[in-house]
Design brief:
With about 250 residues, this protein is α/β, with parallel strands linked by helices. Helices cover about 50% and strands about 10% of the residues. The chain folds into 2 domains: about 150 residues, Rossmann fold (3-Layer(aba) Sandwich), CATH 3.40.50; about 90 residues, Four Helix Bundle (Hemerythrin (Met), subunit A) (Up-down Bundle), CATH 1.20.120.1600. It is built from 11 helices and 6 strands. Helix 2 runs antiparallel to helix 5 and helix 3 packs across helix 4.
Length: about 250
């Protein structure tokens, strides 16, 4: 990425690119993860019951900590971490090592399909349809949401995650990748997300316009300084239009 791509001003700096966070921006991820965990446990209970004594909270937390210590650069990579935890639980349960990788993939497949059975916020589909008809839209997420599984991939020109890029937000790598992909400059780009640091502050540092989705004003407004703050997702299009008109 050249300095010009980040900072150069063009004569008409109307918005060209919208980058969007996913989890807790287009849907509430917590109930989805809880449901996916339950689905996985039921599958384990039916198919590999010997692993259940090891697939318990204390052991899972210990394995999560172990993964982070062994892989500090990948501690925010959810797919790698989950497969690591499953692999070690299966090893602890005495599953034949020659069958481990196949078993890990089977178990992870159960989880990831349930993890992508999200309930979109009521406004999300209309917002995505509106934005994709007017702008280039790229998803930027630390999570392992799959836009195709969810059924919204047609609204996006690209999707970058911590694992696909190799760096998790607030590292700027995926934001810079989005600019390069769309041949946009920061002054023509707006990022929308719910996290004050991982979304808003890093995008601000690159010169993006930003909208902070602080749902129901649950977070302290002093956490970041976005171009605009919304407390209801339904207000997003109005705020984007305001920003665009101000350019």
């Amino acid at each position: 990425m050249t300095t010009a791509t980040l900072g150069q001003k063009r004569k008409h700096n109307m918005l060209k690119l919208i980058t969007l966070d996913l989890d807790n921006t287009l849907w509430d991820v917590t109930p989805t993860i809880v449901a996916a965990e339950k689905t996985l446990v039921l599958w384990l209970q039916e198919n590999i019951p010997t692993v259940l004594p090891y697939y318990q909270k204390d052991n899972l937390l210990a394995l999560r900590k172990q993964f982070s210590q062994e892989n500090p650069e990948q501690k925010f990579f959810p797919t790698l971490m989950r497969k690591y935890i499953l692999r070690h639980c299966f090893l602890q349960a005495g599953i034949n090592e020659t069958d481990i990788e196949q078993t890990v993939e089977r178990a992870f497949s159960i989880f990831i399909h349930a993890r992508n059975d999200v309930t979109l916020f009521p406004e999300s589909l209309d917002i995505l349809a509106y934005l994709s008809s007017r702008y280039e839209v790229i998803a930027l997420s630390n999570g392992n949401a799959d836009l195709t599984m969810i059924g919204i991939d047609h609204f996006f020109t690209a999707h970058y995650s911590a694992e696909s890029i190799g760096k998790a937000k607030p590292d700027p790598a995926m934001f810079i990748k989005a600019l390069d992909t769309s041949h946009s400059i920061a002054a023509e780009t707006l990022h929308v997300g719910d996290h004050a640091i991982e979304d808003i502050e890093v995008a601000n540092s690159l010169g993006f316009h930003t909208i902070w989705f602080n749902e129901n004003n649950q977070q302290d407004s002093k956490l970041c300084i976005p171009t605009s703050e919304i407390n209801k997702l339904a207000d997003l299009i109005t705020e984007i239009d305001k920003i665009n008109r101000s350019l």
